[in-house]
Amino acid sequence: MKKLAKLGVALASAAALLTSVSQTALAADNAVSGGGPSRTIGNNPGGALHTGVYPDVFARTGYSHPAIDARVEGAYQQLFHGAPGTQANRYDGQSIYYQLTPDMAYVEDIGNQDVRTEGMGYAMMIALQLGHKQEFDALWNFAKTKMQLQSGPEQYFFAWHTDTTGKVLSTGVAPDGDQWIAAALYFASNRWGDGTGIYDYGTESEQIVHAMWHESDHGGVDMFKRDSYLPLFTPPATSLNYTDPSYALPGFYKMFAMADPSDKDLWDKAYTAGENLLQKAANPVTGLAPCYANFDGTPYMRPSETPTDNAYDHTFQEDAWRAIANANIDAAWTGVKPWQTQYSNNLENFFEGQGVSTYVSRYHLDGTPLTSGQNAYEPAHAQGLVAMNSTSAISATDKDKKDFVRDFWNTPVPSGQARYYDGMLYMLGMLYDSGNFRMWLPQSH
Description:
CATH topology: Glycosyltransferase
Number of helices: 15
Mean pLDDT: 90
Strand content: under 5%
CATH class: Mainly Alpha
CATH architecture: Alpha/alpha barrel
Shape: globular
Number of domains: 1
Low-confidence stretches: 1-38
Helix content: 40-55%
Order of helices and strands: HHHHEEEHHEEHHHHHHHHH
């Protein structure tokens, strides 16, 4: 959303690719009539990596599986194949997916009229989860051909944004985008198998994942710092020596350790560090995290900023919304931990006090609403934050957690000028809450 924020937690699997679900786990999960392991209510604190059961908070809230499926499909069709909008600015459209050539497509940030690795990674993951291989390949073709840096100290990383023709606008790197692209490729390899050339998904994923720790081997800057095991905000700009809590994707790091076993020790440490950052960055009362943070989790502030100003860096705004889902997808995949439950309970308690269906979207970490920063074209009760808040029901024990799921269910699919960021988070939220954000793993797992 902001230029420095670089805008910006997906993964569908068949039960056969996961560890068989035990009868004990299924019984505890309260399976819905007519469903199998993948169509349960999904009240599973043990983590899908161990049981194969994914939380379905929509079903737990009382929505039927046909209604859930229709809602997910409807959101996908609108955001990927809805009305494109007028060519002048597309503000009046619905879709964010556009075909550049018959075999190449991109997702556009409508408000800024550019293409960002964050959105490309999200869209690739969404297409992967829902089984849309044609769209996946077209998006990957654009990212590989137009955005990936093929030489120099940032080799295999991606330029964080281009124009809609693929012209690179900045060779800076957004670690969240690269992580989402690499994870989507890894799961594509396991779901569809590897093809040739750029469609050898497994090799492409391993190449990107390996580079995250090894650009320094040939004069570049690594994406992850070895003293903190956290992503640098924007390599290779080491002067920007801080991170972004929403760039911490611990659930992905379990997958990256499988994609590149030579660095398993590093990814294990990154997993722990990522969980710690998400925990420490959150205000202990409100649960609100800053958009940017120092590596110890404290809010990042530039020399010109003060704790009480409305600067994007150290307040809860668009980037920080994603930290909520990052913590809860880790819980869904690897098991709910006490800190995640406390974190989600804190968030829900805070937003209940603000009004579940009326809270605004930008705050100081102590819960004071910001007095500026709202774009005129964005709703005050932003759909992206509504989607992210609903994922707190995965790990929360708060008695009113279903209210956040209902609020999301009753929220229309974003359209118009703000549909890129809110739309991507909305679509991901649909996958998270329906149990469709799954891990495609090797058959030997």
